Amino acid sequence: MSAAERQARMVELMGVLAPDEGYTLCGLPGVKFMRANAVRPRGKALYEPCIVIVCQGHKRGYLGGEVFDYHAQQFLVLSVPLPFEGETVRASEAEPMLAISIPIDLQLAAELALAVDDAQSGLVAPAAPRGMMASKLDDALGDAVLRLLGALTSPVETRLLGPGILREILFRVLTGEQGGALRAGLAHQTQFAKVGKALRRIHADYHRPIDVPTLAREAGMSQAAFHASFKAVTQTSPMQYLKTTRLHKARLLMVQDGLTAATACGRVGYESSSQFSREFKRFFGRTPVEEAREMRSLLAQAPGGRAAPWVSAP
């Protein structure tokens, strides 16, 4: 099957799996289909560690001073949970933007990365770790993604074949064009991995008091080294990252759980509702009520689906 034939089949399957605009969940936990029938302006996003494969259309991400374009037959990888800005560059009713988001199981990824590095020891030069990267979909990965989409049209195949195909997709990414950077980020002894541990701690305890000395101590680093390494990975400071995470979490609570702004602000660790409202509007450009209303129109989730806890996107 040629690349063009494979893409056409992907689009056909995505039309069945993602019939409605927004996000649609499926029978595999955390796997989501993304559909946009029109271009979407640049907006705030927070993604869990994941692989986003675009089957049709064009998306663009912004992190610090870098721009990441990922369009048909390309994919984006985030090896750590990152707040960034994203936009849908090309999409229409006739040719919607269609993509699938696959969560990265960090334990499985670390095991596969270790096995791959052991097998390639001395053959491949070590790569510098990166938190976000965009790459072309090669034939091996493209074929695996197509098989996953086909399996997801059947509940039985989803349950019996889906997990194995997800493992293969992760393997293909880890051994692909930028797999070395992802494997380096998963290596436990690196500064990057220590920052990743701190990020997971923030996402687990964002609603509790967290300070930089504690995060640095848990990472086994001095405060100065931790701050520098953290900014190198996330393009922001630890405290700014914590605040951003809390605001994204509050937005999700209002959109997915129907919480009021006053209740959501307390749930994410704010003691002052007025401070929360000010910082929320400064960050998202809209009041909590306005933003929640807008997001509800964009995040259409399938009945009975289990939402991923870290995802907040325009």
TrEMBL record:
SUPFAM superfamilies: Homeodomain-like (SSF46689)
Keyword Transcription found: yes
Gene Ontology molecular functions: DNA-binding transcription factor activity; sequence-specific DNA binding
Keyword entries, A-Z: Transcription, Transcription regulation
InterPro entries per the UniProt record, alphabetical: Homeodomain-like_sf, HTH_AraC, Tscrpt_reg_HTH_AraC_N
Family annotation (SMART domains): HTH_ARAC
Protein's recorded name: AraC family transcriptional regulator
